């Protein structure tokens, strides 16, 4: 899938690699900052031919793997860090890797060995009332996706406000939880470029994904959509000329896109309230009503989205949890 060329900005090169088998994400965007040595923002997933494709693009940009001295990850999903170990090996020298502490555990050997499936995920899907055949399909799919990443256990945790700089660039870390608890944007203030990972994407509305491993988070009361809406406010205040996301094309109207996101989430909350006006419902039933034609491989994201909106509606006093479950039942107030 080809996308339009990114604007030419000194010290910033965008490498957009076609991304097969990952739904409608289109591309995996990796950004090269500096004039050498360079810093990478994200790496894309490990799939056959990905390292060779990245190498060709690096060389076309005037660099090679040994020029990489640092990798900064926008968040801990495999399509953003999966290729990191192979890049470090190809560099032939130590490369520092940085990710927010609320996501760094996702790249660990322990987590990847489990194929992203654990008791907390099982509790959630049972609470949501997913049917057993669908749960089993999701379990198999999660085991398949672990092969798109090598574990990275020596990540250096980064924090809000941390700065990464080099010849020709200066990145400020902006913690933007919501898509994941440790999601971060990276702001090159002088150039007006915000690297947004999956927090902002031009062609799709990013999912505020329900977080099951709450014991690993710095905020035990974390709610994904509430956090995401707060992060939108934070990004909206930045003076960014361009947003360079983790997938697809660049954005040159960041404020307009953020306004569209806000409208989308308000509309979704209204749809859920209208559905609950007919009586108590479980999450899977709501998901099927609102997304009747959804393919099976996207069910977990949809269920997660419905739950994150229900959390906010409960906070707002518009919905209440009528039965703890499993399955949990919700009703309009």
Overview of this protein structure:
With 333 residues, this protein is of the alpha/beta class. The protein has 2 domains: 12-131 and 141-262, 4-Layer Sandwich (Metallo-beta-lactamase, Chain A); 272-332, Orthogonal Bundle (Arc Repressor Mutant, subunit A). Helices cover 34% and strands 20% of the residues. The strands form 3 sheets. Strands 1-2-3-4-5-6 form a 6-stranded mixed beta sheet, with helices on one face. Strands 7-8-9-10-11 form a 5-stranded mixed beta sheet. Strands 12-13 form a two-stranded antiparallel ribbon. A hairpin with a 4-residue loop joins strand 2 and strand 3. Helix 8 crosses helix 10 and helix 9 crosses helix 10 (299-315). The mean pLDDT is 93.
List keywords for this structure.
333 residues; alpha/beta; Metallo-beta-lactamase, Chain A; 6-stranded mixed β-sheet; 10 helices; 20% strand
Tally the structural domains: 2
Q: What would the principal axes of the Cα set say about the shape?
A: globular
Largest sheet: 6 strands, mixed
In helices, the fraction of residues equals 25-40%
Which CATH first-tier class of the largest domain would you pick? Answer: Alpha Beta
Mean pLDDT: 93
Could you tell me the CATH topology label of the largest domain. Answer: Metallo-beta-lactamase, Chain A
Strand order of the largest sheet: 1-2-3-4-5-6
Strand content: 15-25%
The helix count comes to 10
Low-confidence stretches: none
Number of strands: 13
What is the CATH superfamily label of the largest domain?
Ribonuclease Z/Hydroxyacylglutathione hydrolase-like
User: What is the CA-based Rg, rounded?
Assistant: 20 Å
From the N-terminal CA to the C-terminal CA, the straight-line distance is: 46 Å
Helix-strand makeup class: alpha/beta
Order of helices and strands: EEEHEHHEHHHEEEEEHEHHHEE
CATH architecture name of the largest domain? 4-Layer Sandwich
